[in-house]
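Chain A, query sequence.
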Amino acid sequence: MDRIAISDIHIRPLAPSPAIRTALSELLIEAVANGGSVSFMDPLPMATAEKFWDNALDAVARGDRIILGAFDGELLVGTLTLALDVAQNQPHRAELVKMITRISHRGRGVATALLRKIEQSAVARGRWLLVLDTASDGGAAPLYESVGFKLAGEIPDYAFKPQGGLSGTKFYWKRIAAAA
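Chain A, predicted structure.
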């Protein structure tokens, strides 16, 4: 496998477009097919993936989400979403969802770079507390812990794995700036 330098990866916010929707859908389908616990079951039809991303990209257009894309040249190799649409009494927090890295680019720092960039985006929008969840089995817990997220707890049998069978879910939080 050829190694890429993280300097070759470019991260930018994604805006709604048919090409972006297709690239995100293909990335989501690949993740699910390879056991990624990202809320969908395998096999994931393209129409279902496109509908999900249409809704997510509509939320971007409303200002309710930020979706980052990591690119190796023109190829989308990773994504991470910052959900900003939270309850009225929680304007200081945001949730990280849909962390996905293309199989060919895992272990190369793409996810860590996405996390750093999303933290900057959160602080710029006055969000200083981040929350997320990840599967207990095969999830990204070691990655999140390596960048300072704290385990809040774990719920057993929380969701089905993409190919079947139950998995627990770990919930994490991270304070990224001083409380206002």
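Residues 46-62 form the longest helix (17 residues). Residues 13 and 68 are 4 Å apart (CA to CA).
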